[in-house]
Structure of Membrane protein:
Amino acid sequence: MTTETVVILFSYVFIVISIVILHEAIHWMFALLFRRVPTLKFEHFFTPVITYKNNQSDIQNLIISASAPLGLFTVGLLIEADSGILVLIKIMCLANIFNFLPLTADGQVILLSLLNMLKKRRTGRTDHSKMPLPKKRN
């Protein structure tokens, strides 16, 4: 391997790690905004993960979970790149769209929050099981 190859490889690894750290920093920032006491943990081969106290607010959970993938995906759309390092940054940012799938921790929280919000909305409007029956006319 040449020195140039090593430098390029190091640059790519640095960019990937930077995007992952930025992703988690966005979660951290929104968790702090909602006073959720975020903590940083490392799981699965030193992958940084932000955990926070769950106060059962589905809208806050949705915002915290969706903020990083949505923000980075938007940045990826805005980056104009033809070649080089910017292409990798763009790809890494656009790859955050996969975090909306319920196969990821973010996607699972997003789906659960949406389902809970829909359930509460549906049962909050009219719960037909608790409505009084109409009186019979004679």
Summary: The chain has one domain: 3-117. Residues 100 and 132 are 41 Å apart (CA to CA). The helical segments are 3-33, 58-78, 85-94, 105-125. The mean pLDDT is 88.
